[in-house]
């Protein structure tokens, strides 16, 4: 670093004369002090510019993330466990599909008991096919002492869990390895309304499902399958929508074939349309 402690002798260019250190120091500090003053002035201007925005933020409560992407089963379960622990009033759930495995029922029972024991109410929607699952009835009996209601519908939307009408969880991928945690009030309110509409159409688990009478001894489930066949759905799609496995779905289709005297899938669609079994809503 050049400290400027020497300068040319005005009388002899071949010589350098010493500069007093105090003078050299003052000369070096002057531009630095000028820069510091300029930066201080700039910082004051910035603070004054941001002051109105600071007042606004101080008036509003801090907001949480409206949508959080949860990747991986462990992270999803951790978020669900936290929401369960923080829940104080109500849990609303939609659980599509048929009967649950023992592991999934045990996991659900543990989480359910943790909220029911605190006096939190629970309302759960399953599909009609769980009515053939002894495990589901055992699960319902274990929770029966709390404020728990379970109803079923023939078709449901994808899985949905809502805690205290403030946070909701929905799957973001078919393999359920990614979920969305929703905290935006508008989104959660919309999902609550969807749940309430489904709930109003559902039948209590312990009551028999009332289907409208159908001709030719065809069951209500088979009529639902017939409707989906006419709409062009394949076996896998029908089974998924009605919460049953493909083998059961095909067994029902075979019974439809027999009842209507069909010899092929193409003929079955025609006979369904001609039979009148879809003329009544159910």
UniProtKB/TrEMBL annotation:
Under SMART domains, the record lists: HTH_LUXR
Set out the biological process GO terms recorded for this chain's protein. regulation of DNA-templated transcription
Q: Which Gene3D superfamilies match?
A: Winged helix-like DNA-binding domain superfamily/Winged helix DNA-binding domain (1.10.10.10)
InterPro entries, A to Z:
Sig_transdc_resp-reg_C-effctor, TrmB-like, Tscrpt_reg_LuxR_C, WH-like_DNA-bd_sf
Q: Name one GO molecular function term.
A: DNA binding
Cite the HTH luxR-type domain residue spans from the record: 215-272
Q: Which PANTHER family does the protein's record reference?
A: HTH-TYPE TRANSCRIPTIONAL REGULATOR TRMBL2
UniProt-recorded name of the protein: Helix-turn-helix transcriptional regulator
Q: Which organism is it from?
A: Streptomyces agglomeratus
Q: What is the lineage of its organism?
A: Bacteria, Bacillati, Actinomycetota, Actinomycetes, Kitasatosporales
